Amino acid sequence: MKPIVLGLAGAMFFAVTFIVNSLMEAQGGHWIWSASLRYLFMIPFLLLIVIIRGNLYPLFKEMKKHKIKWIVWSFVGFGLFYAPLCFAAAHSPGWLIAGTWQFTIIAGTLMAPLFFVRVSTADHILTHRQRIPIKGLLFSTIILAGIALIQLDHLANVSISRLLLGLVPVLIAAFAYPLGNRKMMEVCEGKLDAYQRVLGMTIASLPLWLVLSIYGVLTTGLPSNSQAYQSLIVAISSGIIATVLFFMATDMVRTSMPKLAAVEATQSMEVIFALIGEFLLLGIAFPSPTAFAGLTLVILGMVIHSFASSHGQKLEKEKSAMHINA
């Protein structure tokens, strides 16, 4: 239950990203600065936290062991996750991006064969490839149907090209975030806590944010004071608080793919938090009945997916016990 609660709390803080990015876009801020400033601002805060906890040296020691893996999977998990989301904010409202972002639940399920699970027996440790949970994937189609509804409703008001500019980057991010997160969990092997892992991935992805910043200076100029301040809010709320909460939750269940999927499913609540935030703070129009029906399907799919994942975890334990006894 605790991982689920942490996941929901993380979803609430993650929603700040969609709300503030929409605000920055409405005020003329460029997506490049929205993306790069978040991670540049995160570094000093995370450094201070990790240093106070006395965990900086162990982090650098682990990063030195797997330099290439840290750079690659941090680029995927942070770079290919957040830069596309910021780009999409220039073409779609925050609640719509948050709704489409829930495709990450399906993406995480589809990527199961890319990972292995270890089962301990009395004599040795068995390693086998994860399989796609078909039942969970079938339930996830409810989420997919909801996303399709809100996107079709959005299509009535925009051109296909603008729809794709807001849709495709989010789908890329939906695959990149769970892939990078899970691969880094494999690399860390439980040796680092959530603060260390977020700091390490932020440092490892730093080359991307520096390149984007240089490009931003050359093409759009320096960010406004308002965008810098708003990016700082996103860095603290989404980049530090939400990410650490989510990583803590996934670390707790990293050995169980069904339970990990359930934690990732809690992120569906981001769409509700983002919608409420934009409605109250930005005065956006409330979604149409069609879009609202789509949002309802997304949330319903999340709930069903969580129950299915819990049942899958129980069966997983029973099969493992039978295998060991045999």
Automatic annotation (TrEMBL):
It comes from the Bacteria. Pfam families: EmrE. The chain crosses the membrane at residues 36-58, 70-90, 96-120, 132-152, 158-177, 198-217, 229-248, 269-286. InterPro entries: EmrE (IPR032713). Keywords: Membrane, Transmembrane, Transmembrane helix. This is Multidrug resistance efflux transporter family protein. It comes from Planococcus maritimus.
